[in-house]
Write a structure and sequence with these properties.
With 463 residues, this protein is α/β, with parallel strands linked by helices. The chain has a domain at 91-106 and 225-430: Rossmann fold (3-Layer(aba) Sandwich), CATH 3.40.50.1100. The protein contains 20 helices and 15 strands. It has a six-stranded mixed sheet with strand order 3-4-14-9-10-13, with helices on both faces. A hairpin with a 4-residue loop joins strand 3 and strand 4. Its EC number is 4.2.3.1. Belongs to the threonine synthase family. Its cofactor is pyridoxal 5'-phosphate.
Length: 463
């Protein structure tokens, strides 16, 4: 297997070179040149595997033998040995049609840990065996930054800079990033929103001279390894359903902002995992819902919500889906992305829109509805949802059909978003790792949304 760009202007690369490239040099996103097929018989053989064993099985289709099996196994064991639950991503039954996959048992209490603990180990491995300098650059709407920093802090041969929107992440998210004082970590708090941060990141990666000079590497879901690592828990969730749910149509509802998590499910389905509907749950920044319902992809007005990790109007991974939607036509993708850059919107219709609506269902959840769902499930099921997971549960209620079951992803621990939980007068017990953050000093630099100033900060840090 080799990896190619959605825009078709990059020579095919191997697995490790794809990891190091991150954003493709032509501005596109890297994808495998063929998606492997997993048979139903193989899936049945995998049913009783641990998360770590399943991870190794799935990655074996994609690494081309570039990483020895023993080295990969050691990385996986180190990555998930820090998780607070032995199953890594346990599946909880809420009622006879709703299951919740808890993805928040990693060190920063968010689903990003699942991929980024492994990516930290992988980058450290590459730095060691290739003698590569690794300078990680990323933007976050809250959870990616903390998880990425946790994955690489203190690691030799690696420096990481994370941009986050100033005062537009939850306080816990901010503290998890900015209370880290390791010398290889730089936090830039940008006056603007997440899309502003992400735009600068993409521009810097598109500057091939700057990217090469400073050995920039991506930690965001523009990096295919993030997508692949997340695909593992889709397989794990479906395979761990109890006997009573097996044989039924299985839908998966995913809180979605940057389209990376839901695209991982799309990849799993194309590999052969039996999934019914892939349900996109978003908030009032609902560009993805509008696209699924109307075919128009057009950023709207930014709104602050109770689910800030989904306060995104430009979804980076949308281009990967567009590539497959157009029948892997890189020329068509180039046309769409040029039009989006020039006119601020694109639209698909006819058979393409029909395919979108076959691939996905979607729901944009209002702030009040999000809070109502949190209160309802705390009262009726005794289960406390964070605001993002609540959006996923609202989407399950809207789109799950009779006789179907749905797995909703719990993408963060509710303690990370007590600003919303406290509005319901719900008192929660904070894990000690979160409760102690407020007493720690913060380390961050507040900067204007200015590419030149951000570039200067990076040059000083990377020297």
């Amino acid at each position: 297997m080799q990896y190619i760009s959605t825009r078709g202007k990059v020579e095919p690369r191997g697995f490790i070179d794809t990891v190091l490239m991150g954003l493709a040099d032509d501005g596109g996103l890297m994808v495998p040149d063929v998606i492997p097929s997993v048979s139903s018989a193989t899936l049945e053989e995998w049913r009783n595997l641990s998360f770590q064993e399943l991870f190794l099985k799935i990655f074996s289709y994609y690494t081309n033998g570039e990483i020895p099996d023993g080295d990969l196994k050691e990385m996986v064991e180190r990555s998930y040995g820090t998780f607070r639950h032995p199953e890594v991503t346990p599946l909880k039954e809420i009622n006879d049609s709703l299951y919740i996959l808890e993805l928040f048992h990693g060190p920063t209490f968010a689903f990003k840990d699942v991929a980024l603990q492994f990516m930290g180990e992988l980058y450290s491995y590459i730095s060691r065996v290739r003698g590569e300098i690794i300078h990680i650059l990323g933007a976050t709407s809250g959870d990616t930054g903390a998880a990425a920093i946790a994955g690489v802090r203190g690691k030799e041969g690696i420096k990481i800079c994370i941009l986050h929107p100033h005062n537009k992440v939850s306080k816990v998210q901010e503290l998890q990033m900015t209370t880290v004082d390791d010398a290889n970590v730089l936090n830039l708090s940008v006056q603007g929103n997440f899309d502003d941060c992400q735009k600068v990141i993409k521009e810097l990666f598109a500057d091939l001279e700057f990217k090469s000079k400073y050995h920039l590497r991506a930690i965001n879901s523009i990096n295919f390894v993030r997508i692949l690592a997340q695909t593992v828990y889709y397989f794990y969730a479906v395979l761990k359903l109890p006997q009573a749910a097996q044989g039924k149509t299985v839908n998966i509802s995913v809180p979605s902002g940057n389209f990376g998590n839901i695209f991982s499910g799309y990849l799993a389905k194309k590999m052969g995992l039996p999934i019914g509907k892939l349900i996109i749950a978003t908030n009032e920044n609902n560009i993805l819902e509008r696209f699924v319902k109307t075919g128009e992809y057009k950023p709207g007005d930014f709104k602050s919500t109770h689910s800030p990790s989904m306060d995104i109007q430009v979804a980076s991974n949308f281009e990967r889906y567009l590539y497959y939607l157009t029948g892997e036509d890189s020329a068509a993708v180039n046309g769409y992305m040029s039009k989006l850059a020039g006119e601020g919107a694109i639209k698909v219709d006819g058979q393409l829109l029909e395919q979108v609506q076959t691939d996905f269902a979607a729901l944009g959840v209002k702030n009040d509805e999000c809070l109502n769902i949190i209160g309802k499930y705390k009262s009726e099921a005794g289960y406390l949802l964070d605001p993002h997971t609540a959006c996923g549960v609202a989407a399950y209620e809207a789109h799950n059909g009779p006789g179907e079951v749905c797995i909703t992803f719990a993408t963060a621990h509710p303690a990370k978003f007590d600003e919303a939980i406290s509005l319901l007068k719900i008192a929660q017990e904070f894990p000690p790792q979160i409760a102690g953050l407020a007493a720690l000093p913060q380390h961050m630099t507040v900067v204007e949304h200015d590419k030149a100033e951000i570039t200067r900060q990076l040059e000083e840090f990377y020297i």
